[in-house]
Amino acid sequence: MKLLQIQSSATEGASVSRQLVETITTAIAEAMPGLEVVTRDLAAHELPHLSAERMPVVRAGKTEDLTPVQQDELALAEAVLDEFLSADVVVVGAPMYNFSVPSQLKAWIDRLARAGRTFRYGPNGAEGLAGGRKVIVVSSRGGVYSSNPAMAAFEHQESWLKAVFSFIGITDVEIVRAEGIGMGPEARAKAIAAAEAEIARLVPQAVAA
Ligand SMILES: Cc1cc2nc3c(=O)[nH]c(=O)nc-3n(C[C@H](O)[C@H](O)[C@H](O)COP(=O)(O)O)c2cc1C
């Protein structure tokens, strides 16, 4: 059994999502001796944007006559995809940045959504090819969106990640949410406690699956 943890917060020590991703990983590892844990820290080791030079490798599957940048892209894109496809559980730290996710996390997603590898278009439209794994998204955000209808239109973080994972065939997506982090120490502590309670509920299910 293999667990891939993805960290994307650009904040180090005080990051809520980093802390909760570690809590989930530790809890699953304690319940599953022998669990292999792989970490990709997208803030410490940023993936480049998809430039015009990199694009043919990722979008058209170009593997020959590569420039040095394209050789770099091929190695990166294959490593990211192999790491993801070989994991049984993927824990994704996803802070909200400007109503969406950090661009570091977007760059990782840009290497997961690969035609012919994780999805394909057929007569019935798009078909996801990357099912069979569990994804746990740790959502941290300064404001409150889940219970505030006025803010629903601003929420492009959890909903976007769910849509992307569903597009590539992953329907087993759980959200661990800590929201209201920017609304004072009491709200922050309450949000983290709620997320920890959700982790305590989820982990036994993830281990039993
Ligand atoms: C660049 C940046 C943009 C942010 N944008 C939003 C936002 O649009 N909405 C929100 O509710 N919180 C926003 N926040 C607050 C973070 O979502 C919040 O601090 C969260 O805890 C960050 O996750 P982390 O603690 O794991 O770093 C932003 C924070 C940063 C650093």
From TrEMBL:
It catalyses: N,N-dimethyl-1,4-phenylenediamine + anthranilate + 2 NAD(+) = 2-(4-dimethylaminophenyl)diazenylbenzoate + 2 NADH + 2 H(+); 2 a quinone + NADH + H(+) = 2 a 1,4-benzosemiquinone + NAD(+). Binds 1 FMN per subunit. Its EC number is 1.6.5.-, 1.7.1.17. It comes from the Bacteria. The keyword S-adenosyl-L-methionine does not apply. One of its GO terms (molecular function) is electron transfer activity. Keywords: Flavoprotein, FMN, NAD, Oxidoreductase. Belongs to the azoreductase type 1 family. Quinone reductase that provides resistance to thiol-specific stress caused by electrophilic quinones. HAMAP family: Azoreductase_type1. Homodimer. This is FMN dependent NADH:quinone oxidoreductase. The gene is azoR.
